[in-house]
């Protein structure tokens, strides 16, 4: 889902509440209809104006292994073709990029990819 879509979907409940609030004010206190519509309009315009400033908060960040691509680590076990590596102080399951390669324990590795919670690494 696009960021802009996610942002405006989160704003809809606020617009509904603003509409309900001004409807109650109109019915109980006699708030003129033009004033009620203006209040709802201001709420909607506020959300449109704020989008560029809040866009980053609604963007999805890469999680898990994807956020580690490009970092370096150390092989804890011999990767033949899979084992464990330390990256950024954390122990991760890893697989060598070329299945025929072997990386001995203690060697530096570079993260070149990842899927779910398994890194794909090459020897540095």
What does the model show?
The chain has 124 residues and is α+β, with helices and mostly antiparallel strands. The protein has 2 domains: 3-58, no CATH class; 64-123, OB fold (Dihydrolipoamide Acetyltransferase, E2P), CATH 2.40.50.140. It contains 2 helices and 5 strands; from the N terminus they run ααβββββ. The protein has a 5-stranded mixed barrel. Helix 1 runs antiparallel to helix 2 (33-58). The mean pLDDT is 92.
Structure characteristics:
OB fold (Dihydrolipoamide Acetyltransferase, E2P); alpha+beta; 2 domains
Give a topology summary.
Elements: H1 3-29, H2 33-58, E1 72-75, E2 82-87, E3 90-96, E4 108-115, E5 118-123
Helix pairs in contact: 1-2
Produce a short descriptive summary.
The protein has two helices and five strands; from the N terminus they run ααβββββ. The protein is an alpha+beta fold and 124 residues long.
What CATH architecture of the largest domain do you see?
Beta Barrel
- Sheet/helix structural class: alpha+beta
> Biggest β-sheet: count, sense, barrel?
5 strands, mixed, barrel
User: What is the third-level CATH name, the topology of the largest domain?
Assistant: OB fold (Dihydrolipoamide Acetyltransferase, E2P)
Fraction in beta strands: 25-35%
What is the radius of gyration computed over CA atoms, rounded to a whole number of angstroms? 26 Å
How many distinct folded domains? 2
**Global outline:** rod-shaped
- Average predicted confidence as pLDDT: 92
The number of distinct helices, counting runs of at least 4 residues, comes to 2
Sheet with most strands: strand arrangement: 1-2-3-5-4
Q: What is the assembly state of the chains in this entry?
A: single chain
CATH superfamily of the largest domain: Nucleic acid-binding proteins
């Amino acid at each position: 889902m696009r960021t802009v879509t996610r942002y405006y979907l989160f704003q809809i409940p606020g617009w509904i509440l603003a509409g309900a609030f001004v409807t109650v004010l109109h019915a109980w206190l006699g708030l003129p209809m033009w004033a009620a519509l203006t209040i709802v309009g201001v709420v909607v315009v506020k959300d449109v104006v704020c989008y560029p400033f809040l866009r980053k908060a609604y963007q999805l960040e890469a999680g898990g292994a994807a956020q580690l691509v490009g970092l370096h680590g150390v092989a804890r076990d011999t990767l033949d073709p899979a084992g464990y590596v330390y990256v950024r102080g954390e122990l991760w399951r890893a697989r060598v990029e070329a299945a025929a390669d072997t990386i001995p324990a203690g060697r530096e590795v570079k993260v070149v990819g990842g899927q779910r919670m398994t890194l794909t690494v090459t020897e540095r």
